[in-house]
User: Fold these one by one.
Assistant:
Number 1:
Amino acid sequence: GAIQIPTVSFNPGEFNTTALAAFGEYIHKVFPTVFRTSFIQHEVVGEYSHLFTVQGSDPSLQPYMLLAHIDVVPAPDQGWEVPPFSGLERDGFIYGRGTLDNKNSVMAILQALELLLIRNYIPRRSFFIALGHDEEVSGAHGAQKISALLQARGVQLAFIVDEGSFILDGFIPSLKKPFAMVSVSEKGSLNLMLEVNKTPGHSSAPPKETSIGILAAAVSRLEQTPMPNMFGSGPLKMTLQQLANEFSFPANVIFNNLWLFWPIVSRLMEREDITNALVRTTTAVTMFNAGIKVNVIPPVAQATVNFRIHPAQTVQEVLKLAKDIVVDDRVQFHVLESFEPLPVSPFDDQALGYQLIRQTIQSVFPEINIVAPGTCIAQTDSRHYTNLTTGIYRFNPVYLQPQDFRSIHGINERISVQAYETQVKFIFEFIQNADTEQRPVSHLHEL
Ligand SMILES: CCCCCCCCCCCCCCCC(=O)N[C@@H](Cc1ccccc1)C(=O)O
Ligand SMILES: [Zn+2]
Ligand SMILES: [Zn+2]
């Protein structure tokens, strides 16, 4: 039912408002207990986002927050095995836009809460559920407003859990077993517009170089000159060290001795697009516009480049690197938008949020040996909540293979019924684990 409501975000400020309103009515209908429970306050924020405040019985415990978003990216029918907004089930899978990003979380959170309430569960620790409606176009109207509202109320959170990582299966060559990656940081971004202006004229007597030629060369230099490999800095080294014993010989020796082999490993990571995204700031030329008529020398040429900034770099550093690569004063640089990478959230034995996620993974997925910290390569709504907590964790309790990763924002996005049920179970257990008094036991080293 949730998938059938086309809550598409097209551009900042451009949403399917009819669908967003319908989605609000839909959750009222299917989760009646959540909405009529006296200790749960429901508020609509920014017209279409939802904030639930679940008042726990023990005010001495610091609250936490679960995040998800109800909007989705557009999905033209072409290439889909079943229409993207049909929500049809086939061979045990629910197909449709939003099944992995991120209506699975929206529905699983509310469904888990509904089930707990039906069983008369009364949480001890207060928590919030924030469902943004414009994550896919920046979160300015949803997450940002909810964050400001909670800040005005003086709320401080123990931690936040959002989307952004999964139980990864088949992403690291020669690692046979899946592992859970909990992202403790998130890449930043810089959208840069490059522009070249030239005097227009008749194409029969062209200048040696046109604005298009100059810009194309600049853009090509950016593509051909990757930003530096930052393998050594950031959580990735730790991720691989934790995975070391999961590899067979000789990879296990290599990953156990990164002090010696890191140059080889950092090269290996560059080979595949996804692992490359973990080791450096990536450069993606995403738009290119120029020319007005076949026989007119183009006055203006513009290109936009989307950099995703490694947590060990800053917006200013990347801007300088980009200028140093282009080295052509005829090319003007305009910063359209930027966002710094997110600080690394704690993941030590005392980090409540991280340890609760870890503990719940170990009980719901007993077959998973490794829970490792990582970096989210995309941006999530959680980046708007740094004023409320230092513990931001991005993790969805769902198995993900590279082909599933491509289905996110792509075609044939789907989730198995069993995987969805497991996600509900995970949240059902997580909420209860967050109520247990003692700190989660520190992690024992895997055998
Ligand atoms: C070791 C192997 C690592 C493998 C990594 C694979 C992990 C999969 C990560 C999946 C991320 C899902 C979250 C997607 C969120 C998303 O699409 N965010 C968007 C948000 C956004 C929208 C408009 C403007 C700016 C930003 C984005 O980052 O573009
Ligand atoms: Zn998402
Ligand atoms: Zn998305």
Note: The chain has a mean pLDDT of 95.
Number 2:
Amino acid sequence: MMNLKQLVLASHNAGKLKELQAMLGDSVQLRSIGEWSKVEPEETGLSFVENAILKARNASRISGLPALADDSGLAVDFLGGAPGIYSARYADGKGDAANNAKLLDALKDVPQAERGAQFVCVLALVRHADDPLPILCEGLWHGRILTAASGEHGFGYDPLFWVPEREVSSAELSPVDKNQISHRARAMDLLRQRLGLK
Ligand SMILES: O=P(O)(O)OP(=O)(O)OP(=O)(O)OC[C@H]1O[C@@H](n2cnc3c(O)ncnc32)[C@H](O)[C@@H]1O
Ligand SMILES: [Mg+2]
């Protein structure tokens, strides 16, 4: 198999790097693609899977190492699954706070029963840039969109995501707790099984 001591993470998102490295533990060192390039590839795919593969290939091409990508987002029922693959760009690249404000506004006056949402995470691992058989793993996390932000942990939409099984927002979970139950944790669990790491 491939040498998994070092894996390039095809992401410029520090929150993802932290979470994924914590889940992997010491067995695999994740190195951010930011060490090689600050340029983010355009995410032109129409699905999480396509974008994850595109980012992984790009990082592997640049670094010459096997690469792992995470394409993720928030799919809101009332919005027909939006912002979905456009979650990072929902407020036109103005960042997390603007994304959250736009989402709250889009759900203004929407009753609790219709505020269901899921976080989605697709992990793609390529052994090399032209790998014809990327390893793909997916994880979902069901919850609800709050009417106001709450909590300081995590990143992105975490302050707006109510976690029914814990009765707190995702940003109120400790990092250790989030990493046990999140969409990313579920996808990583499958990946570790696929790689024989557990
Ligand atoms: O593409 P890379 O460089 O990995 O970084 P990114 O932030 O652009 O990542 P995505 O394209 O996958 O977009 C995912 C967005 O979905 C949101 N998101 C994903 N996982 C999340 C999580 O665990 N908690 C909160 N928000 C999350 C957050 O807004 C992210 O910016
Ligand atoms: Mg992105």
Note: The chain has a mean pLDDT of 97.
Number 3:
Amino acid sequence: MENGAAKPVIVAIDGPSGTGKSSTSKAVAAQLGLSYLDTGAQYRAITWWMVTSGIDIEDPTAIAAVAGKPEIISGTDPAGPTITVDGTDVSGPIRTQEVTSKVSAVSAVPEVRARITELQRSLATSAERGIVVEGRDIGTTVLPDADLKIFLTASPEARAARRSGELKGADVNATREALIKRDAADSSRKTSPLAKADDAVEVDTTELTLTQVIECVVTLVEEKRAAK
Ligand SMILES: Nc1ncnc2c1ncn2[C@@H]1O[C@H](COP(=O)(O)OP(=O)(O)O)[C@@H](O)[C@H]1O
Ligand SMILES: Nc1ccn([C@H]2C[C@H](O)[C@@H](COP(=O)(O)OP(=O)(O)O)O2)c(=O)n1
């Protein structure tokens, strides 16, 4: 690398629920001094707004009509990511079961995706040192020119065990079924479904510790940075 400021590096991390995207992305960004964006939190935030505003989630036309209304702001410091809707901190409310069960329907609406994608691109472009962006369609649609694309996978059993460990006392089988259902919805929607980009590096995390996954991704980012 030349002397002086390093060029910003853009990293896209995609994959289904519970594969380790958030934990890995946050740690990689913190270690490398990059910004961090949880795009799932943005889709959860707009879903939270639709629910609290009384919009019929079963009606894509009604969702599309108001998709531009809420102001969603993401703070991209990996040490303390934040998310607000019209100035209200929604980091807690966006993790409720109600929002989780409705987020796939809301995020399938093209007007919602167009709105959120615009926010994502703007944050990625303004990150001075670069950014790690995690989601479902980052490598394929949002940032197709990312310097590095990672696609994380893990068996449904491992993913359900991880998630039910987080939701204390949750039944592993019910969690597994809910995950599979949400992944199927996210993978089968028409507009930018959950998918691996052709040029993404696939990492199966089933048998890896979180530390191993983080090390693997940090190494890949450093290789890309050195080559820039
Ligand atoms: N490789 C791993 N091994 C064990 N647990 C993991 C691993 N990666 C992530 N986890 C744990 O699994 C849970 C879900 O991880 P998270 O990063 O939120 O996944 P995602 O963002 O893909 O839904 C978290 O509690 C996290 O600590
Ligand atoms: N880039 C993205 C990110 C998330 N989504 C949608 C689809 C996902 O089911 C929801 C929630 O994503 P989130 O990453 O918070 O989900 P989990 O942490 O895996 O439970 O948002 C999306 O459509 N596109």
Note: The chain has one domain: 9-223.
